[in-house]
């Protein structure tokens, strides 16, 4: 799990501080240079035909740029991935169809395609792209579905977490139609640093679940359901008006957004634990 605070100072920043210490620049000029470097520079971007690849996002935000595959040509996605891999950044492509995924897998050796999630991950070198289980990890995210038909959205969240290096536990089909299933899962849910809950129909599960945990709950409305579900609008409105204070909501079927949000929470906690342990050892 990578956050900017855990990364060593960039050579550009070190040079600015060295120039300041040696008197080759003044405080105002150094401050301007630091501000410019934190926002990003032209060196952090690389242009390919049809796209400007943000290579500096990893340093600024802790995780690299994700490729939204729908509507992009295979050639364009290939060029973007080649640009990222060339600087040692693993890639995640969301909403990619099977044909495009197959074509990219012929170009890149180390890949993981999830047809349910419609995601493709491309690793650098022999990077392990398998999902990360909770065993041996003190911090993880739970990804929960209300019903089995919500699985494709949950899969997108789980693949996102794996790309972020965050351990994940799946808990499936515990919707409010069978409340005993939710109650049985509460001990496992309480162990998670954050919980992604995917629910269609009326979208009641996130609020029902949130009342059992002292944990951020990221609600993902799903387009699963009959007519009055309105392709996910009904659960979206219900989740947005939830009485549970620990529920935040992302867009309809947005497994990537739910997973990413939860991954940031878990990464922050894991990094804080690591820094605290290092401080105790010192």
TrEMBL record:
Keywords for the protein's UniProt record, in alphabetical order: Lyase
Source organism, top-level taxon: Bacteria
Pfam family, one: AIRC
InterPro entries registered for this protein in UniProt: P2CMN_synthase_LarB, PurE_dom
Alphabetized GO MF terms: hydrolase activity; lyase activity
Domain called PurE: residue spans: 139-271
Gene Ontology BP annotations: 'de novo' IMP biosynthetic process
NCBIfam families per record: LarB (NF033503)
Protein name, as recorded: PurE domain-containing protein
Upper taxonomic lineage: Bacteria, Pseudomonadati, Planctomycetota, Planctomycetia, Pirellulales
The encoding gene: purE
